From TrEMBL, chain A:
<feature type="domain" description="Thiolase N-terminal">
    <location>
        <begin position="7"/>
        <end position="183"/>
    </location>
</feature>
<dbReference type="Pfam" id="PF00108">
    <property type="entry name" value="Thiolase_N"/>
</dbReference>
<dbReference type="InterPro" id="IPR002155">
    <property type="entry name" value="Thiolase"/>
</dbReference>
<feature type="domain" description="Thiolase C-terminal">
    <location>
        <begin position="263"/>
        <end position="368"/>
    </location>
</feature>
<protein>
    <submittedName>
        <fullName>Lipid-transfer protein</fullName>
    </submittedName>
</protein>
<dbReference type="InterPro" id="IPR055140">
    <property type="entry name" value="Thiolase_C_2"/>
</dbReference>
<dbReference type="InterPro" id="IPR020616">
    <property type="entry name" value="Thiolase_N"/>
</dbReference>
<dbReference type="Pfam" id="PF22691">
    <property type="entry name" value="Thiolase_C_1"/>
</dbReference>
<dbReference type="InterPro" id="IPR016039">
    <property type="entry name" value="Thiolase-like"/>
</dbReference>
UniProtKB/TrEMBL annotation, chain B:
<feature type="domain" description="ChsH2 rubredoxin-like zinc ribbon">
    <location>
        <begin position="24"/>
        <end position="58"/>
    </location>
</feature>
<dbReference type="Pfam" id="PF12172">
    <property type="entry name" value="zf-ChsH2"/>
</dbReference>
<protein>
    <recommendedName>
        <fullName>DUF35 domain-containing protein</fullName>
    </recommendedName>
</protein>
<dbReference type="InterPro" id="IPR052513">
    <property type="entry name" value="Thioester_dehydratase-like"/>
</dbReference>
<dbReference type="InterPro" id="IPR002878">
    <property type="entry name" value="ChsH2_C"/>
</dbReference>
<dbReference type="Pfam" id="PF01796">
    <property type="entry name" value="OB_ChsH2_C"/>
</dbReference>
<dbReference type="InterPro" id="IPR012340">
    <property type="entry name" value="NA-bd_OB-fold"/>
</dbReference>
<dbReference type="InterPro" id="IPR022002">
    <property type="entry name" value="ChsH2_Znr"/>
</dbReference>
<feature type="domain" description="ChsH2 C-terminal OB-fold">
    <location>
        <begin position="61"/>
        <end position="136"/>
    </location>
</feature>
Amino acid sequence: MIKDKAAIVGIAETAFARRLEASECELASMAILAALEDAGIAPSEVDALSSYTMERTEEIEIAGNLGFGDIRFFSQVGYGGGAGCGTVLHLAMAVASGQAEVAVAWRSRKRGSGPRVWATSAERLYDGYKYTRPYGLVRPADELAVLTRRYMHEFGATREHLANVALTCRRMANNNPRAAMYPKPLTREQYMAARWIAEPLCLYDNCLETDGALACVIVSAERARDCRHRPVYIHAGAQGISAPHPGFMNDYCGTPFRTPSYAAAKALWRGSDFKPDDIKVAQIYDAFTTMVLLSFEAYGFCGRGEGAAFTENGALDPGGRLALNTSGGSLSEAYVHGFNLINEGVRQMRGSSANQVPGADVCLVTSCDDVPTSALILRN
Amino acid sequence: MAGDEKMIASWPLPTTNDHDAPFWQGARRGVVVMEACGSCGKLRFPPRPMCPSCHSRQQQWRELSGRGRIWSFIVPHPPLFPVFNPLAPYNVIVVELEEEPAIRLVGNLVSEPAGPINGVSAETIRIGEPVQAVFVPVTDDVTLIRWIRRR
Ligand SMILES: [Zn+2]
């Protein structure tokens, strides 16, 4: 087990905006350099790297731009939004096992100003999309909408519950000057009147489209004691693919609400001294509001079908049962494939969040519920 | 997926491979044909080279009734692939099959086989509605499976 053997000692991000001039490679380099400065560690000391398989800037570009020395470990974690926490987990394992000493995870995206990934399709479909796209089910939002409609039907969830998630994230972002939606308030009336994307999902059920990059620096617990900031220990981490294991969702077969998060959660709690009851703040992957409800269930904060009711009565506010996405998350801070959730988890443990949860000493961070995924428990 | 493929301004269509060709050939003949294990008989979808239950690589193809029920449905709005934008809002339904409800096919609910995918008002669609497969030739080699209401 990796329990508390490695720590995050540096975090940084570029600005978040719909359009940034710098390239993805430049943004990645800037974020990594700033994270190393935050840690007080020289770039020449970095010997391990991890990012996502969809990252377009290669390790050798990063190492070249930043003047790294010899690299001894590198990995790319698969499945897009499911990868974020996995990058930190891979590096925590590398550091804990002595394979590396100074490790950097990053994600850089131009999803705001770049082409929409679903705006074009191959003329002929070779993969699983051949069973969905010919019928006009073309975007991730469409796939989530299928699940959302069924979830509402089976468990009585309503748009009011989805709005609880969207409005919570926006309120958090309204206190966070880094957030793309700072300082733009969102009312329940605006949510209900918003244009549809894929009924029953409206505009505000969908994450932002953002340019930006983030990075964090991981070293051993021993080394972390000599760094600039209070260490944030990587207490537990896990990846997960639930059986049955589809490419995206379980809509083709099997049990649709048993998403990959269930497998990740099982492994995560097994490696942790904490239980869901001990967690008062969480950064839950929120590309779509529905994912958050399903994640509450998967990670054991409530039972199957109870994720909607869990959002009621201010439960997601700071000081509530489970403070949610305290930077604004993907819905209102930035959509950078969930890496901003990791850095915000670190800020909560440092006590420096714009929406600091009083007394928070442990934080759950998750990656995408609907694809092969990963999760972390951070502690101070 | 390789980056040099032609991107379309037209309808996205499937290619067939060694494992799934009978499914698409079945549609061209006007039948929902589903892969089953040649050893234990369990139906599986999407087509794959090994039975996840008994690990046999033997396969057989079974003609099904083409009957099912609506398991979920959505109504996409633009921006979509260019070809779908003029048709939106339209319906997409997910159908659980009568013979194996754990297998679900994505499709569209139409008022008649040749009808448009925006021809049935989404306000009238209900989860659990019984539906019947219909077969819509799109090109010489591809026939799509759509669905009409069954009574
Ligand atoms: Zn079998």
